[in-house]
Specification:
Blueprint (H helix, E strand, L loop, with lengths): L2 E5 L8 H14 L4 E5 L5 H5 L11 H7 L8 E2 L5 E4 L8 H5 L8 H7 L7 E5 L6 H9 L2 E7 L8 H14 L5 E8 L6 H14 L12 H5 L7 H4 L4 H15 L2
Parallel strand pairs: 1-5, 1-6, 2-4, 2-5, 6-7
Antiparallel strand pairs: 3-4
Helix pairs in contact: 1-11, 5-6
The structure holds adenosine-5'-diphosphate (ADP) and magnesium ion (MG).
């Protein structure tokens, strides 16, 4: 049975999609069967792993809003063991369309239940908001991985995020846990980076991964080639750190 992890932070640009794609590929590299689910209308995980959005006929929108079978939407990727449920811009309408719907919080969970015995890990790339799509992701998940960018105000907004976690625990998913907090885009050349690391570790303690993701230009180039970093540049620092993160996640099993 798959372990289902939401990668979430309502701030944009903190490394959610980069982490979903590269952690997923690194887990697959370790022999795990992995499914990525893109729940952001930007579809960055979808294109970043090499699926052309123009060729996607049905996507996560059809699953959530029209109850289209998720198994029919899954696409393989060029990385062995790694599949994806794509998202396209039509998902932008889902926040509003879900509002009056029956069981609107548990639609993703119901869909995932149909296929979760086929995977070891299911990683959900969340949108930069705490709306219905993120609530669906949290309701469907065993745990949440929170990327935190090493910058000023790194902790800002996290109390809102943790509040949403508590609400979902209370109403929809009492088993929901924090998988871990991941420091991203660390820049060793500034003092700020080190200060943020200390601040985040003080707040989240042992829940912060030992692995810290540095700024690495190869990580930002890989998506435009439709590849995870381990395939785009396996010798890069970016590949090394996401493999290290996968090791930590595997140890949490
Ligand atoms: P989010 O999904 O939270 O919005 P992304 O993963 O899309 O964030 O990252 C935002 C931007 O920063 C993207 O252009 C991405 O390629 C880049 N990026 C993410 N992580 C790194 C990193 N460690 N080093 C360099 N660039 C990064
Ligand atoms: Mg994203």
């Amino acid at each position: 049975m798959a372990r289902i992890i939401s990668v979430a932070n309502q701030k944009g640009g903190v490394g959610k999609t980069t982490t979903t794609v590269n952690l997923g590929a690194s887990l697959a590299y370790n022999g795990k069967k992995v499914l990525l689910i893109d729940t952001d209308a930007q579809g960055n995980a979808t294109s970043g792993i090499g699926v052309k959005k123009s060729e996607v006929k049905k996507d996560i929108y059809d699953v959530l809003v029209n109850e289209y079978p998720i198994a029919n939407v899954i696409k393989p990727t060029s990385r062995e063991g790694l599949d994806i449920v794509p998202a396209t811009i039509q998902l932008a309408g889902a926040e509003i369309e879900l509002t009056p719907m029956m069981a609107r919080e548990s639609r993703l969970k119901s869909a995932i239940d149909e296929i979760k015995d086929q995977y070891d890990y299911i990683l959900i790339d969340c949108p930069p908001s705490l709306g219905h799509l993120t609530i669906n992701a949290f309701t469907a998940s065993d745990s949440i991985l929170i990327p935190v960018q090493c910058e000023y105000y790194a902790l800002e907004g996290l109390s809102q995020l943790l509040n949403t976690v508590r609400l979902v625990q209370k109403h929809f998913n009492p088993e929901l846990q924090i998988e871990g907090v991941l420091l991203t885009m660390f820049d060793a050349r500034t003092n700020l980076g080190a200060e943020v690391v200390e601040e985040v570790r003080k707040y989240f303690r042992e829940r912060v991964y030992d692995t810290i993701i540095p700024r690495n230009v190869r990580l930002s180039e890989a998506p435009s080639h439709g590849m995870a970093i381990i395939d785009y540049d396996p010798r890069s620092r970016g590949a090394e750190v996401y493999l290290a993160l996968a090791k930590e996640v595997l140890m949490n099993e």
